[in-house]
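Data deposition worksheet. Section B asks for the primary sequence of the deposited chain exactly as it was used as input, without tags or linkers unless they were present during the calculation. Section C holds the resulting structure in token form. Section D is free text for depositor observations; keep each observation to a single sentence. Incomplete worksheets are returned to the depositor.
Section A, Depositor: J.P.
Section B:
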Amino acid sequence: MCGICGIAGASDKKLVLKMADTLGHRGPDAQGVFTDKGISLAHKRLAIIDLSARGKQPMSNEDGTVWVTFNGEIYNFKELRSQLERMHRFKSGSDTEVLVHAYEQWGEDFVSRLRGDFAFALWDSETKKLLLARDFPGVCPLYYHFDARGKILYFASEIKAILAAGIKRKPNAEALNDFLSLQYSVGPQTLFEGVLKVQPGELVVFSKGVLRKKKFFSLPRASPAEKSEGQWISQLSESFAKSVERRLLSDVPLGVYLSGGLDSSYTAAVMASLSDKVKTFSVDFGMDSSDDKFSRLVAEKLGTEHKELRVDSSNYGVFPQVAWHMDEPAADIAALPTFLMAQKAKKHVTVVLTGDGGDEVFGGYERYARLSLLNKWNWAAKHLKHVPFTLGSFGDVDRAKEILENSGDKPRLLLSYSAALSEKEKKQFASPTLSESNKTLSKTAPFFGRGDFRSQMMDFDLRTLLPDDYLMKVNKASMAFGLEPRVPFLDRDFLLLTQTLPSRLKVDGLKTKVLMRKLVSSALPPAVVKRRKQGFNTPTLKWLAAGLGEIAGQMLESPQAQKRGLFEKGFVRKVLENAEKKETLWGKRFWTLFSLECWHRIFIDADKPAKPSSFRRLDA
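Section C:
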């Protein structure tokens, strides 16, 4: 993957290079720029395929009438090239060049033929038309800002490059509400007013000052297919192996992020069956509940070259750097260990495969089981005097009661269970101005009608949580060091197959990943197969005790924060006090409020957004 940016509707080489300078971490190997009347394209290259100068971008067709700046990989580029070579002359061995010739041959519809992880901008100088496209399900980031008055479009792989063009930096109240509920902004909105995401599977066309959008791919909601478990296991294992094999396409070294969970472990196992000397990387938090022993078990069984990164109580100090790279508030604190792991992995490889997407396609989150049972038995849940076992430990009695009250309403149940601040709490603790812009419930509700609640939750996560949060976290934390992440569980063919898997083979009662555990049983150690979903066990309590709590208190209760007036003072104090006691809902609230405060100081309050080296720089 690389860094791309540009301006359509104006030609400004100096400005587009300024934008590109903010993306240097994404492409440390080379820089390219193309300008012409009404267009400026720039590229920061991370060389993966065809490492020679012939792969330099922006890249054009034979006569220089079509130009592209591209981020990502096209895994079927050899098949497409074999079709195009009869009509077009190729000058490189890169997958990038396929894009310009495919557009020449098939027009805008060429995007639907692509299989890969990609975001690109393609300029047709004859029609004065710019195409922006992003893969489905949204592995690669792509943002844009349209200046309607000037008829100018700015775009980039990361928001900070668009900000470098000098657009007004103002918080988006609607997206802020989404963030308080979900810990991410729901596309196409971002936390910056006027900055939008190109949606997964979307083509944005800009021509003569007018924007047009259309979907080139949307994952169908398929009916379950009835097959025996043996047939399912055979087809799924074959399809996943092909997905991993596609993602081994590289002229540079590859590795795997290995957490010790089912998804990353199975990815490593399949990769090890297809290639020699697999390199794996994990994080060791030095806690009894950490993943290190499971990742070691897998590494030993597979015979990988395993590297561990020890994270101690001082490592929270890099959070301001993480916040800068994320562009939007990093409430998902797993971004921090991912950032640290990428820094280590980059010393050994340039590409890493990840296990992202496995939970969404196979039913790995416990909330899929808990909430579906609560919803099914809502008539009983509403009358329970104590929090039932299905809720787990929340540490907030009022929220637990709210969950039970909402058990018969799917979208309200999901939000009250998952949110840092529920819809009710936003009205209580957020500023009136903020709560007046609350549209989160209305955005969520269309995903949940009649039918299987478990499947609806998985679909919601696949279409929002993954592209708007998890994939962006892994992409930006990894690309902070010029390390390209690839996601085999989200291969298009594999996704289409898993969409037909009956939900009972994903979640059954309180059992999660029912069929997947059988699928991986022969490849992984039994302890890993039986393991419950953990996620990154970040040592929040240790970090708070080691100094983060004091820093957060000073920042969240400062005159600077109080002047913003986003939250009621008493609520902020209660979050700080309770977060230090136990990692429950209060820990989620802490990271939501604290990451939002860091984001304001870096991107909104500062005269010019700049990467902070420490928390001290945030007070400057």
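Section D:
DSSP finds 27 helices and 19 strands in the chain.
The longest helix spans residues 453-479.
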